[in-house]
Write a structure and sequence with these properties.
With 359 residues, the chain is an all-alpha fold. It is built from 20 helices and no strands. The chain has helices at 20-27, 31-34, 45-56, 62-77, 81-94, 99-111, 115-130, 137-154, 158-171, 176-188, 192-205, 210-223, 226-239, 244-257, 262-275, 280-292, 296-309, 314-326, 330-348, 350-358. α6 (99-111) runs parallel beside α8, α14 (244-257) packs parallel to α16 (280-292) and α16 runs parallel beside α18 (314-326). The protein is elongated and about 80 Å long. The relative contact order is 0.06.
Length: 359
């Protein structure tokens, strides 16, 4: 498994197919319409409910529907998915053949935490988009297919997700979300060559996009193309100096490679922690490297914080035991070794295994 480069309390940045970034991209689609003055500015919940009631009334006209669509897109951009789903649900009843309404309803429903309900809505959105005549058809159809792939992935159906994404990039090769999502899925499935190809396409479509650069660097690193991985991490840092991912990725890779770049690796990890102090991997990697460089006292702070971030992980405690041993603090080293043993024993416990399966 690739290294986890995000707070362990959050979703894995490299998981099988976790699409928090992708969903943010999807909600930005058709953003120009969402900026429409008819949407107003951050309508209150009561105003949205009033708009829903007006739509349901027989007197609702096309102008009201257009305003409701603009408001719904604004709600999507603001992350107010439950309200957006309610609004687009009523709009879908009034305009069942409107591809944008259908797609937006599916997107809002999925982001409301209802992937099962969102799946048939996304399928309908694709069917409607695929029936559009004109140059918009490939892009709209690919939008729906990417969303459908996300839904399949969340439901652990990678085969269906892959099929949808391959169809999306065949329809619209220049669809950034489709290429990025395809790369992430292939990466999770262990197809580094296919993933790198998709990530390269995504970066060519949006050269400054930090997520595309990060995933390309990660793919190159795992494939063994270290020099190009380092170059890509450097480019990510140059373009986005305040993003911890670039500093973390480059620092960890330089330390892994060893040699004259190790000191730079330590500095990059330190910079990543200045941006985000709660990076488990940065803490553990930095602690391990400091011990190896004869600086065990400096390592303790990082390893203790890592143990707080991931209390069920034995690694920081094991490294702490090494640090204390190097410092001649035998009692503290022994205490950390006991913690390591206890964690390993708890992982072998049938009770813990059962809880894990149920949870």
């Amino acid at each position: 498994m690739p290294r986890n480069r995000i707070n362990p309390a959050a979703s894995s940045f490299h998981g099988r197919l976790v699409f928090s970034v992708l969903i943010a991209c999807l909600t930005a689609h058709h953003s120009a319409a969402a900026q429409d003055s008819r949407a107003g500015v951050d309508p209150t919940e009561a105003e949205v409910a009033q708009l829903v009631d007006r739509l349901r009334s027989p007197s609702g006209d096309d102008e009201l529907s257009e305003r409701a669509i603009a408001v719904g897109k604004l709600l999507l951009r603001k992350g107010r998915y439950r309200e957006a789903a309610q609004l687009f649900g009523v709009l879908a009843e009034k305009q069942p053949d409107n591809a944008i309404v259908s797609y937006s309803f599916a997107l809002a429903t999925f982001n409301s935490g209802k992937p099962t309900e969102a799946e048939p809505l996304a399928q309908r959105a694709f069917s409607l988009a695929n029936g559009i005549t004109g140059p918009e058809r490939p892009q709209r159809a690919a939008d729906a297919l990417v969303l459908l792939a996300v839904i399949h992935a969340v439901r652990n159906d990678d085969a269906a997700a892959l099929k949808a994404l391959q169809q999306a990039v065949a329809l619209a090769p220049n669809h950034f979300d489709a290429q990025l999502a395809l790369g992430r899925l292939l990466f999770g499935m262990g197809d580094d060559t296919g993933a790198i190809k998709a990530f390269r396409t995504a970066t060519s479509l949006q050269p400054a996009n930090p997520q595309a650069q990060f995933f390309l660097a990660t793919g190159l690193e795992r494939s063994g193309d270290i020099e190009n991985a380092v170059a890509t991490y450097r480019k990510l840092i140059a373009n986005n100096p305040e993003m911890f991912e670039g500093h973390l990725g480059l620092g960890a890779l330089l330390l892994k490679r060893g040699g004259p770049g190790s000191e730079e690796g330590l500095k990059e990890l330190t910079r990543a922690l200045e941006i985000n102090p709660n990076l488990y991997e940065a803490r553990v990697t930095l602690g391990r490297a400091l011990i190896a460089n004869g600086r065990p006292l400096e390592a303790i702070e990082h390893l203790e914080r890592a143990a707080q971030l991931a209390p069920d992980n034995p690694e920081p405690h094991y490294q702490l035991s090494l640090a204390y041993r190097r410092l001649g603090r035998k009692a503290e080293a022994a205490a950390q070794a006991i913690i390591v043993k206890r964690i390993h024993e708890s992982r072998r416990s049938p009770k813990v295994a059962t809880q894990s399966r149920l949870g």
